[in-house]
Amino acid sequence: MIDKLFLKHLSKKGKIAYWVGQILLDAIWAFYVFGVAGYSFETGGETMLIFGMLAILVGWGVVCLMLWKKPKESENKTLSKEI
To answer: Which of 5, 32, 57, 77 is the most buried (most CB within 10 A)?
Structure first.
């Protein structure tokens, strides 16, 4: 649901970067939670995993919006009129 909100405002490169970054950051977070920190599903690892993934989703989405936001239609029209 949040993904649709981010993807609606991202350019094509931004959509690709969003999904690639999301998968990589989630994989790194899962490796940290279960490999480095030593959690398991029995010891509360699923809670850490889910909250971390939600934080990554929002954080990476904001970064992608800052870097690859679609230009507004009104800006495109004024640029084409000037040329």
So the answer is: 57
Pair 69, 11: CB distance under 8 Å: yes
Could you tell me the two tokens for 32? 């940290």
CA distance 33 to 22: 16
Name residue, tokens 């950051």: 25
Query: Tokens 């990476």 — which residue?
Result: 60
pLDDT, one tens digit for every residue, the chain (83 residues): 788 888 899 999 999 999 999 999 999 999 999 999 989 888 888 999 999 999 999 999 999 999 999 888 765 566 556 56
Q: How far apart are CA 79 and CA 77, in angstroms?
A: 5
